Amino acid sequence: MEERPCEEPGGRVLNDPRGCARAVPPDTAAIRKLLWAYVALVFLEGPLRKWFLPGLSQPLLVARDPIVLALLYLAWKRRLFVGTRFMEFVGWLAFASVAASLLVRDGFLTTAYGFRSNFLHLPVILLMARVFERRDLLLFARCALAFALPHGLLMMAQFFSPPGAFLNSGADDAFTQIGLGDGYIRPAGIFSYNTGASAYHAIVLALCLAPLGGRGSHYGLLRAFGYAGTGLATVFSGSRSAWMAFLAVSVVYLSASILWSSAQLARKAPALMALLVFLPIALAFPSVSTALEVFVSHRLANDSTQTELLPRLIGLFTRPFETMWDFPLLGYGLGVGTSAGAALSGIGSLFYYGDAETEFTRHFLESGPLLGGMFVALRIGGAFHLLKRCLKTAHRSDLTALLLWASVAPSLVAGNLGQSTAAAFCVLVSGLALLACRHAEEPEPRAAPALPGGRQILAEARI
User: Fold this and answer.
1) What is the C-alpha separation between 119 and 375, in angstroms, rounded?
2) From the CB of residue 444, how many other CB atoms can be counted at a distance below 10 Å?
3) pTM of the predicted protein model
4) Which one, of 316, 366, 322, 324, lies nearest residue 345 by Cα?
5) What distance in Å separates the CA atoms of residue 439 and residue 134, rounded to the nearest whole number?
6) CA-based Rg of the chain, rounded to a whole angstrom?
């Protein structure tokens, strides 16, 4: 039996995460514009904080928050979240976490910052999936690919610039880019931190490999920009995370193509052969060989790196659970595990566990083993639910959603949400992946027989 839409019949019908039909009101132009403003600020925040408005670096840290509040108001007004189990769970967990935080601490600003880090931006994921159309995904892909090569060249220039150069400015006077060794730094590109550059180019690689835009020369040129920019950014990144993201997306693409989309892999064969021919030529350039030598000597060659990397990765997920009951039942309060929240509370770095390698510990520290454990479960469950949706679309030979998921999966599970750029990319890519899933799952309208006079009608698509 066909289900009736959950909202007014004039809206656009799409799939609800629970499986019921849902109609989104057609008057969502304002939400769409705000979503694009959110996306733009993800990329503009870094240049504004580092180069153009360094005096406003701290206020710009929360520049996207007013946009999110406006989005939430418009979504509530149009009832876009009604009956969504994800939002219901997030809402109740956020309320309980804030209440517990205010019980154990009297720092309202610290709690507010912890709330915005953990919960405030999560609804944007669903709004992107429900309001954006395929044309928005294509527009984002074209812009991201077109900017990849200039950004890769910028990272190369930053790598060979002195640590104190203007190009390597930090988000404030006290912050400088992370050193790599021998006088080199890990370039951040236009972002405040090098994690943003790694996340961006992982997305670019996913969009290069995804079946978007057809096989026209225009999109082919953009793909070439994307491949070249990602190659430059990875070589000069000085970051193991960038190399791991590159390998993760590549492995997922090759595996999924062999299983479900061998035709796409065959179409990519000429590009892969060209890459194999170009690789030795690229390695002959002194700048490339220098960057690789510095990276290998300082990030891979020492014995401790070789012996501790795997245990370190495993420990990211196991150590927090071994110590979770060492924290108070309600934790020390939201926000105290982030650098900004610790500064607002006046406790400095006493409780600062907010680095990327102890993110689960931060949740237990802030909200205790029960509420913190529920938030950890939300992150892990959300990542695997999204993977399940992406695998469904991959079975239909559309790898777009799965590749986007691969580019951001580690950040979804254990990335540092207390860092603005990392959290923004989690939200952005999750929303785009859900959008790709939605369009892959929606059936195409079927053409009905021609009516007298040459007219045709479209058969109603069943959801």
Assistant:
1) 10
2) 7
3) 0.86
4) 366
5) 7
6) 23
273: left (phi over 0), alpha (psi -120 to 50) or beta: alpha
Q: Is 459 helix (H, G, I), strand (E, B) or coil?
A: strand
Write the single-letter amino acid at 279.
L
Task: Please list the helix, strand and coil fractions of the chain in percent, rounded to the nearest 5, in that order.
Answer: 70, 5, 25
- If you write DSSP's letter for every residue of 144-182 in order, what string do you get? HHHHHHHHHHHHHHHHHS-TTSGGGB-SSTT-BPPEEET
State the Cα–Cα distance between residues 159 and 168, nearest whole angstrom: 9
Over its length of 463 residues, how does the chain's per-residue pLDDT go in tens digits?
333 444 443 444 444 444 343 445 556 889 999 999 999 999 999 999 999 988 888 889 899 999 999 999 999 998 888 778 899 999 999 999 999 999 998 788 899 999 999 999 999 999 999 999 999 999 999 999 999 999 999 999 999 998 888 888 876 655 667 777 777 888 999 998 888 999 999 999 999 999 886 555 578 889 989 999 999 999 999 888 899 999 999 999 999 988 887 777 777 777 677 777 777 777 778 888 888 888 888 777 664 555 566 677 777 778 888 888 988 999 988 988 887 877 777 665 445 444 434 788 889 989 999 999 999 999 999 999 999 999 999 988 889 999 999 999 988 998 888 888 999 999 999 999 999 999 887 765 444 444 454 444 333 333 2
